[in-house]
Design brief:
Helix content: 25-40%
Order of helices and strands: EEEEEHEEEEHEEHHHHHHHH
Distance between the termini: 47 Å
Largest sheet: 4 strands, mixed
CATH class of the largest domain: Alpha Beta
Shape: globular
Strand order of the largest sheet: 6-5-10-11
Bound molecules: glutathione
Oligomer: single chain
Length: 326
């Protein structure tokens, strides 16, 4: 595993502890600040001040791209997509914070700029403060909560993806879906023992079965309103048939085989603006270029998926979005 040791990039980190007894254990994100609408705050909400560093292949980074669009933040928060899949220097970008870089700009330099003594991985997404050249936050679940509210007084956007009355239920879905589905596909794909792999895959499909049954009678996870829980699930579902099924051996069933999950996935994909955040070719290429997945870098041609086909979910009651009173 590559990463930073005291601000320097190393291709094999000495203290790599990502695999325990054959099971993949995700490391915690370390930059955990917030942006606030209070002008005196450390990171005050301002148009044009913050930047997202993302990769289209990455499900965690894609959450933040989805929220940027859903919350109408296109003119408020800029972003850069990585230009190449995860390479020996990690994620690469065409430009760094000071402009174009002819040989590309590796993400680890951003981490070293924010914290010259930083040790750990250099992951996307990163929410970056251009003014102080610091990382506000590199944990996607927190970045999407920031985007959900912090800039509302600037944009006037009232969409609430974490509404107070639904929070307990959203939290319950997140607590089920994060370990078993979002991270479950990685625990399956990165397992180094048969037992760890089978444990992850079994829990993954048991959870997908539960969700599919629930979606037979409910338009969205919490019922009638689209929430954060749906979008967190979406970025994994949209990668499933083209990447996780083959590259990560998550092959008991495809999402296309599920009667309700398949239409639900298409409805979310067809939500205004969302398709622009999903680059299917890049996703597939990214997963099939991982060293532990491919020996020769072959990217499979199939499967063919049609996310623009009718979703067939209109018979279920649902008002779609929850608007916050201002
Ligand atoms: N907890 C982080 C996880 C982010 C993450 O693992 N991103 C992957 C890409 S999908 C990454 O950048 N990996 C680089 C590495 O492992 O060194 C979040 O949700 O924001």
């Amino acid at each position: 595993m590559s990463g930073l040791v005291k601000g320097k990039w190393v291709e094999t980190m000495p203290a790599a502890e990502e695999i325990k007894d054959g099971t993949f254990v995700r490391m915690d994100s370390v930059f955990r600040d917030r942006i606030s609408s209070d002008p005196g705050a450390d990171f005050p909400a301002e148009a044009g001040r913050y930047h997202l560093w993302v990769a289209y292949g990455c499900p965690w980074a894609s959450r933040t791209l989805a929220f940027r669009v859903l919350k109408g933040l296109e003119d408020v928060i800029s972003f850069s997509p990585a230009t190449s899949a995860f390479m020996s220097q990690g994620w690469m970008f065409a430009e760094g914070p000071d402009g174009p870089e002819p040989d590309g700009y590796p993400l680890w330099r951003l981490y070293a700029t924010a914290d010259p003594g930083h040790s750990g991985k250099a992951t996307v997404p990163v929410l970056w403060d251009k003014k102080t050249r610091r990382i506000v936050n590199n944990e996607s679940s927190e970045i999407i909560r920031i985007l959900n509210t912090a800039f509302d007084h600037i944009t006037g956007n009232r969409l609430d993806l974490y509404p107070e009355p639904l929070r307990a239920e959203i939290d319950r879905w997140n607590a089920l879906i994060y370990p078993n589905v979002n991270n479950g596909v990685y625990r399956s794909g990165f397992a180094t023992t048969q037992h760890a792999y089978e444990e992850a895959v079994t829990a993954l499909f048991a959870t997908l079965d539960t969700i599919d049954a629930h979606l037979g009678a409910n338009r969205y996870l919490t019922g009638e309103h689209l929430t954060e829980a749906d979008w967190r699930l979406f970025t994994t579902l949209v990668r499933f048939d083209i990447a996780y099924y083959g590259a990560f051996n998550c092959n008991l069933r495809r999402i296309a085989d599920y009667p309700n999950l398949s239409g639900y996935l298409r409805e979310l994909y067809q939500w205004p603006g969302i398709a622009s955040t999903v680059k299917l070719d890049e996703i597939k290429r990214g997963y099939y270029s991982l060293k532990n997945v491919t020996l020769h870098g072959i990217v499979p041609v199939g499967p063919q998926v049609d996310l623009n086909a009718p979703h067939g979910r209109d018979h279920l009651p649902g008002r779609g979005i929850w608007r916050r009173e201002i």
